[in-house]
Amino acid sequence: MTKKDKIKVLFVASEVAPFSKTGGLGDVAGSLPSALRARDADARVVFPKYKTIKPETIEKIEFVTEFTVHLSWRSQPARVYSVPDPNDGAPAYLIENDFYFGRDGLYGYGDDFERFAFFSKAAVEMLSHINFKANILHFNDWQTGLGCTYLRDIYKGFTFYSGMKSLFTIHNLHYQGVFNREVLWSVGLDDGYYTGGTLEFYKNVSFLKAGVVHSDAVLTVSQTYAEEIQTPKFGYGMDGLLWKRGLEGRLLGIGNGIDTKANDPATDKRIYVNYDKTSLKKKRENKYRLQEQLGLPVGDMPMISMVTRLVDQKGIDIIDVAQRELFSKDIQFVMIGTGEGRYERMFWNYASWYPQKVRANICFDDTLATRIYAASDLFLMPSKYEPGGLGQLFAMCYGSVPIVRQTGGLADTVRHFNPATGQGNGFVFKDYDASGLMWAVNEALTLYGTDKWETVITNGMSEDFSWNKSAGEYLQLYEKILHS
Ligand code: GLC
Q: Peptide bond preceding 302: is omega within 30 degrees of 0, i.e. cis?
């Protein structure tokens, strides 16, 4: 590659917002490629054409090409389409196969191993059909782990692919794509891949491990998480392997950015009243309006919010231990999110036990979520572990001060406020327990209403959480991989 050539990147992900999204991966895959393009890379994204994609988001879809993907005995057609990326109109690719993706959900099927092996292979195969000679294939999470194996052991044998390198990002190590040994055969790999140095993982096979061992470099979404996953506590059985990749200098962390244009309280049409850090009185209007909308008493008491998936990772169980003490305070608590039944019921219960204080919105509603960020004073994210975390970034953009546990991306982005120096953008506790959580809540409530309160809000609102900084780090990493 000469200096003036643009670096070419294919970003491979199982979900891409706004087309499909179940979590933070969708947000990242939906905003990072355009941020890289803004820095003059030719980055393109590819994802499955699920039945659940809303037709209005792919109105301008165009057929590109069609080919057959062979996985063991099964040969299936892959039809490639392109749609303009909503950020800048560049082509985003979809792979259609109704047998695999014409279903009511994204994940959770008995043949997920085959569905995502197909997608990963089709994504790599697609490059030669659309004549996009990528320098870097950037795979994400277990669903695309096998792409690293297919590239390394099959496609690199062809001239078109020979110089290509791969990067594998772990957005969440907990989801490892573990299947029994027999699936190797059905995804077109032989028993030679059932070894400690390849895909074997505690007597099963792991697709995430494929990404870890067969990529040119492994990335996670914060520096702290990159450190944490090399230890048994956070490593989910993969820490030894990750530590080894770390020693080779091939395990790194780059913090996530968010789309700060779409999430700017000064212009966002989803919220009731626009404001910025110089007009925080108007932020208060948002609180009153949300209180009205949700039928809560209207007033200036501190409002704590959560916008979250209701899963173990998010620290919901320590809230349950703290709940009596938490709701004995003069606060309001508004949450939105869905997930495990026991946690949905837990918040339903709080709402019925504390009707003057708690509202539980057990749903997924982008507008309401944004209104909650804008209305609330404090944003609670007591995660057990958190690879990157986007909620705390959205919260700070809207001037909702985060209360977080010191782990992963939360540790990298939230700094405990020090009233003496006026430094810090939130409240941070260390130990994963109810007393740690309540200590941080009390710190926050003590500051609320004092003349320092606006300082902690504006410190958060003044940060740059755009992709600007990280996109530069990504490009440096791509170059480094390319020349290694
Ligand atoms: C996963 C992680 C989250 C991260 C996101 C995007 O959802 O749980 O911490 O921010 O991926 O990388």
A: no
CA of 165 to the centre of ligand 1 (A): 24
10 CA to centre of ligand 1 in angstroms: 20
Q: Is the CB of 256 under 6 A from ligand 1?
A: yes
Sign of CA dihedral 289, 292, 295, 298: positive
Give me the phi and psi of 311, to 5 degrees please. -130, 165
Has residue 2 got a pLDDT over 80? no
The string over 150-170, giving b where at least 16 C-beta atoms fall within 10 Å of a residue's C-beta and e elsewhere, is: bbbeebbeeeebeebbbbbbb
pLDDT in tens, 274-319: 999 999 999 999 999 999 999 999 999 999 999 999 999 999 999 9
Domain 8-257+468-482 fold? Rossmann fold (3.40.50)
The CA distance from 137 to 364, in Å, is: 32
Ligand 1 centroid–CA 133 distance in Å is 29
Matching fold, domains 8-257+468-482 and 280-465: yes
Q: pLDDT value at position 380?
A: 98
Give me the chain's average pLDDT, please: 97
Q: Measured between alpha carbons, how far is 236 from 175 in angstroms, rounded to an integer?
A: 9
Domain residue ranges in the chain: 8-257+468-482, 280-465
Pocket of ligand 1, candidates 11, 172, 310, 414: which has the most ligand atoms within 8 Å of its Cβ, to mutate?
Answer: 172
Class of domain 280-465: alpha beta
Could you tell me the pTM of the whole model? 0.95
What pLDDT does 332 receive? 98
Is the CB of 384 within 6 Å of ligand 1? Answer: no
388 lines ligand 1 (CB under 6 A): yes
DSSP letter at 66?
A: E
CB 390 near ligand 1, within 6 Å: yes
End-to-end CA distance of the chain: 13
Bridging pattern class, strands 91-96 and 74-84 = antiparallel
Structure confidence at residue 484 (pLDDT): 86
